[in-house]
Amino acid sequence: MRTAKWFLLVAGILGIALVATSWDRSAAGAQESKPSGGSDRLVVQLCDGETKLEIADARAGEVLPPEKAREVARRMMAAYAEQQAKQVSKWTARDRLTWEREQKRVIEEGYKLFHDWKALGGTIGISCDMCHPDAAATHPETYPKFQTQLKRVATLRDMINWCIENPMKGKPLPPDDPRMIALEAYITSTRKGVPLEPGKH
Amino acid sequence: MWPLKWKKREQEYRQQREEFFEAVKRLNRREFMKIAGLSAAVFTAKQVVPPHSFQVVDVVRADPQEKPLFRFAYISDTHLYERELNERFVNAALRAVRDVNALDPPPDFVLFGGDLAQLGQPKELELGKQILSELKVPVKMMVGEHDWFLDMGEKWRELFGPENYSFDHKGVHFIVLMSVNEKDFWTERKMTPMERMLTVAQLDNPIQSRFEVGEEGREWLRRDLARVSKDTPIIIFSHSPLYKYYRPWNFWTEDAEAIHEMLFPFKSVTVIHGHTHQLLTHRIQNIHFHGMLSTAWPWPYAPEGLPKLTVPMERPDPFDEADGTGWGTVDVHRDGYVDKHYNLWSRNPITVAKAYLESWGKEAVPPIPEFPPY
Predict the structure, then answer these.
(1) What would the pLDDT profile of B62-76 be if each residue is shown by its tens digit?
(2) Between B85, B202, B298, which is nearest A124 by CB?
(3) Same-domain check for residues A63 and A85
(4) CA distance B269 to B286
(5) Fewest CB within 10 A of the end CB: N or C in chain A?
(6) For position B35, what pLDDT does the model report?
(7) B303 → chain A, closest CA residue
């Protein structure tokens, strides 16, 4: 696993370096021209999406000869190794950004669905927010719990589907439907920090 | 000799029966069972047979209150879509109309509490007018934000007249006040009328402005109140609660304080409001506030700001689409203060009595729910 990761990393860096040597400048994804302190040096970014490496003897936008490109790749590799040696966590700033961004995206998607009966397959103009403004009275922290009316222990997902089928007069969503996941993400986000109390009535 | 006695007995029986059913209306089931069980136990312990089966209830009846001066009914927040899209809300509105028509004796009039339509469309408003025209007693119309923000009240005014008006009834001065104006949030955002309507129709949409009577409305109210003596009881119909409960959902009137100032000099003021779809009770000095039920759906209570005097209704059962909804009546007393009856379709009726508000919640407390809102 670890070897494979290293291999990919090295291959990736070499790829970037080789692309940087090609005639097509715009394809050089890792290459940024950033005038720092008036100088116009080549700046490359490491795979963590965070660390930038300034190449002192190459100018931004310069087409590097193969030798020099390999040298840049070697330096990037070294910088990465150095960074790895110092790093405590396996996860990088890019990971954190990804988590936040994806969470936000799915919650926003859920918010939209929560306010859009057509998108959820409703048929009589009733959307979730009409009974649950700001997802009030959805109490996701109380599930799973016995639902007298369903005669079994039910989850939030069961209740979402119940609402889609009954008041909204739509068809239930498959459990892995991205819309279901988005709804769950939005609903639970509104109760962040509330203690879990499964079974609470 | 004895047939006469028999006749008297029968009369007595009928009278007691009448009183029994009157009293039962004021009890919820649990209270009734408790009391009935208790008094039955007392009788059993004493080894006496109750003289008649209805007496148990008389034991718990509070002092007979002064008889109200008159009664009006209310239907509110029907949120009608066209029938082809949604029959449920149409049927609920029709049910309320049937219930009100069945009142015997009939109420003096019916207040419609606003939000007749869901998206202010002419067809929705016309359908609403047609449904309300089935009522046998006169209807006093009030406008809600769902009726207004598609065409800024054009169609509503065409169908029902001005949005601000007042009338006098049996010594009480009634004021219907348009309280769901909003400061322009749409022009700058280049919204279409339908976009504006949908924004306002979404309770939890933070883009819209807060409800207000507004400068013009306040001026109209000032002029109207100037004609009324300070002793005259005043009842105001307003769609938004004329106070500040929860801002994010517009359970709120931005210029509430300015309005209260105008009302404080009067001896007795009652506000009956829509919009909140729930049991809601509040008092600020001389002003008593009562919410109205919706026929369409109940709103949950807001996460904060609930007035202290409100005894919330028990959380509605989502599996019963009529639960938490209904209509109601208002008994107006000589001094203008009211007993407010919530006729919930799937529950026992609940009364918030004048005595409850007058005693600041010490007396005549409405039933406390076992399962309060989350």
Answers:
(1) 445 579 999 999 999
(2) B85
(3) yes
(4) 6
(5) N
(6) 55
(7) A136
User: Can you read off the two tokens belonging to residue B25?
Assistant: 């209306």
- Domain interval for residue B37: 8-46
Sort out which chain A residues have CB atoms less than 8 A from B374's CB and list them: 136-137, 139, 142
A81 and A100 inside one domain: no
Number of domains in chain B: 2
Indicate which CATH number applies to the domain containing A147: 1.10.760.10
Domain count, chain A: 2
Q: Is residue A152 part of a domain?
A: yes
Same structural domain, A73 and A119: no
In a domain, residue A28? The reply is no
| Domain housing A109 | 93-189
Q: Which residues of chain B have pLDDT under 50?
A: 1, 42-43, 46, 48-63
Q: How far apart are the first and last CA of chain A?
A: 47
| Beta-bridge partners for B169 | B172
Which of A139, A117, A143, A112 is CA-nearest to residue A130?
A: A117
Residues of chain A with pLDDT > 70, as a percent, come to 81
pLDDT, tens only, B303-356 = 999 999 999 999 999 999 999 999 999 999 999 999 999 999 999 999 999 999
Answer yes or no: pTM beyond 0.90.
Answer: no
User: DSSP alpha helices (H): ranges in chain A?
Assistant: 2-21, 66-86, 93-114, 128-131, 156-165, 178-189
Measured at the CA of B157, the angle between CA B154 and CA B163, to 5 degrees, comes to 115
Distance (Å, whole) CA B86 – CA B97: 18
